[in-house]
Design the sequence.
């Protein structure tokens, strides 16, 4: 049984509708979001256990969609025991408020608790299934050795990793 | 032999490992993998699999590729599966599969294994091959082929002329190659090197010691001779050429002009050609009775010699002198009288003594300029008696020149020293010295003119 909790902390001023001044420039005037939130933190749980937390510089909310578009992504993933397993930073992303699935885009950097670094342009995280994957070129930096792959899929503890077209040093594991 | 086999397999196979010693670790860092298909890492890298084709490339030029690779970290096993090809500057290995045991530093290649020395062209083919890397507890690397009748073409660079190659082809039921210099073959070994062909139940070769051995019904064949025995030991010189062959146990030399049998046979070679032969019989029985089966025996088309030992000198393969020592006995085996009324002892020419020395010269019928090897013929035969009462003895027969169909007269001679001078294959004269006794026997019914005396000194004999 999944109990979804999504707490939106409006740490800064919330911007609802288009009646307030744009906080960071003219670009916001062009956005079509129904709501824009600045400085947002979220927590996702799975079976009562925290699976991910996230802070976002900006969140774009659409009334007709369960997905939020976010900018300035900072996430932390937790394993099934609730222990930190990885952090994710990205330029932007998409949060699904129903499934807690996350898509991070643009200079995505995932760092595991053991120091493995994964860099890609698009990273998917499925909190329900506790899986992380990318379908685009990905670069792994493990123990100082670089490995690339065209695609990869892993559990959020990075115990098991699969993918295609591995190149570079063979990964020793990123748990 | 294969050079740098120490680096063979292991260097590249270690690219898939990250837990071996510092040297292997360094190799790992020097190598990268390019996977053409999928990969999977399970259990924090406990098991890593690459499928759809994987290629390892190292900075020093080594490469290894296979259809897929699986590595099991805890057990320390790396499996290269399907169309494995390893290449470094010196060697290439292809195989269906290769299993590498990281901790034991052992690589096991299976299915149509071909190991090629790229520098010399040496090739070993086998259904399966195991490579043991040199380690602290295993000072020398080793290639083991336990079964499957491997085929090896071993090419060595001739030291004196690096443009030339010396090729040896070996087939055996099983092989062991240690380091770069030693080889062992087991089970129906067939070894071919130029004109030389060796066979035996097993074989070994140690290059550093220049030691080649064949066991169990060993046989060495060249265009000039065949040497066989229970075992054969060969010694090679610095140029890897045979310089000495020794056959032990029921040794037999089968040559064009002479066969030699003895419990031990030793052949000395110069530039591949026989220069000397020593045949040694077994130790005489304590009772002193003569057992001809334990003596050395030399047998040619018309001559047979037995002795405790026989030493034949043949520089440049031209027979020069044969020395038979110890209860020596020589006999002509042509011109035998097939008459039942003639005792064996009188049916042929023979000579015996403690020592018999036979000298040879180039046959007079040799055609000048003939490129074929000149025929050698006996020049003289010297028999010397042994200790005390043991005198040399000889029997030679004298044909009736007027009527050769008549039985020959028999000349029996005892002396300390008997020298027979030969001409055209016949006894031309005999010289005897020391305690000479001679008996001349004229067959019955012969004209008296043809028989100078029935009993007495034989006219052809000159006493000294």
Sequence:
């Amino acid at each position: 049984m999944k109990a979804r909790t999504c707490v939106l902390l409006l740490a800064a001023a919330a911007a609802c509708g288009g009646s307030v001044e744009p906080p960071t420039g003219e670009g916001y005037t062009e956005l079509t979001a129904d709501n824009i939130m600045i400085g947002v933190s979220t927590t996702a749980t799975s079976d009562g256990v925290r699976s991910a937390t996230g802070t976002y510089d900006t969140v774009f909310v659409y009334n007709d969609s369960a997905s939020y578009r976010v900018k300035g992504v900072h996430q932390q993933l937790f394993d099934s025991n609730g222990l930190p397993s990885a952090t994710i930073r990205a330029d932007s992303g998409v949060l699904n408020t129903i499934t807690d699935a996350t898509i991070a885009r643009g200079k995505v950097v995932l760092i595991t608790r053991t120091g493995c670094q994964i860099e890609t342009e698009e990273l998917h995280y499925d909190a329900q299934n506790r899986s992380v994957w990318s379908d685009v070129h990905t670069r792994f930096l493990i123990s100082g050795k670089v490995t690339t792959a065209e695609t990869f899929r892993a559990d959020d503890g990075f115990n098991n990793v699969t993918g295609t077209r591995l190149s570079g040093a063979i990964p020793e594991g990123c748990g | 032999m294969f050079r740098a086999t120490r680096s063979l397999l292991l260097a590249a196979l270690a690219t898939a490992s990250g837990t071996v010693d510092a040297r292997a670790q360094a190799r790992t860092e020097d190598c990268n993998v390019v996977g053409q298909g999928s990969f999977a890492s399970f259990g924090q890298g406990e098991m890593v699999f690459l499928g759809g084709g994987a290629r390892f490339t190292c900075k020093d030029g080594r490469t290894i590729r296979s259809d897929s690779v699986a590595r099991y970290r805890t057990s320390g096993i790396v499996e290269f599966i399907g169309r494995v090809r390893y290449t470094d500057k010196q060697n290439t290995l292809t195989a269906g599969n290769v299993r590498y045991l990281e901790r034991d530093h052992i690589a096991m290649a299976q299915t149509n294994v071909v190991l090629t020395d790229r520098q010399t062209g040496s090739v070993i083919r086998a259904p399966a091959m195991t490579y043991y890397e040199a380690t602290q507890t295993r000072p020398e690397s080793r290639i083991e082929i336990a079964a499957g009748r491997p085929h090896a073409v071993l090419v060595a660079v001739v030291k004196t002329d690096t443009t030339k190659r010396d090729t040896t082809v070996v087939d055996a039921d099983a092989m062991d190659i240690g380091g770069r210099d030693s080889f062992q073959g087991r089970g129906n070994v067939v070894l071919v090197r130029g004109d030389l062909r060796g066979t035996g139940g097993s074989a070994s070769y140690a290059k550093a010691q220049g030691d080649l051995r064949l066991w169990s019904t060993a046989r060495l064949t060249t265009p000039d001779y065949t040497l066989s025995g229970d075992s054969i030991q060969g010694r090679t010189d610095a140029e890897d050429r045979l310089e000495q062959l020794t056959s032990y146990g029921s040794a037999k030399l089968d040559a064009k002009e002479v066969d030699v049998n003895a419990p031990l046979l030793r052949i000395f070679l110069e530039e591949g050609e026989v220069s000397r032969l020593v045949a040694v019989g077994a130790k005489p029985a304590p009772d002193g009775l003569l057992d001809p089966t334990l003596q050395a025996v030399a047998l040619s088309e018309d001559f047979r010699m037995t002795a405790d030992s026989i030493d034949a000198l043949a520089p440049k393969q031209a027979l020069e002198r044969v020395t038979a020592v110890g209860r020596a006995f020589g006999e002509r085996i042509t011109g035998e009288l097939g008459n039942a009324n003639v005792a064996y002892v009188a049916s042929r020419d023979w000579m015996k003594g403690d020592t018999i020395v036979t000298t040879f010269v180039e046959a007079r019928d040799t055609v000048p300029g003939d490129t074929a090897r000149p025929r050698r013929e006996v020049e003289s035969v010297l028999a010397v008696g042994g200790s005390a009462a043991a005198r040399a003895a000889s029997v030679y027969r004298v044909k009736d020149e007027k009527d050769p169909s008549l039985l020959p007269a028999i000349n029996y001679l005892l002396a300390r020293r008997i020298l027979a001078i030969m001409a055209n294959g016949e006894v031309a004269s005999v010289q005897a010295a020391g305690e000479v006794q001679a008996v001349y026997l004229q067959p019955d019914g012969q004209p008296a003119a043809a028989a100078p005396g029935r009993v007495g000194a034989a006219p052809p004999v000159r006493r000294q």
Notes: Residues 1 and 47 of chain A are 6 Å apart (CA to CA). The two ends of chain A are 27 Å apart (CA to CA). The first strand of chain A starts at residue 15 and ends at 16. Confidence is low (pLDDT under 50) at residues 1-20 of chain A.
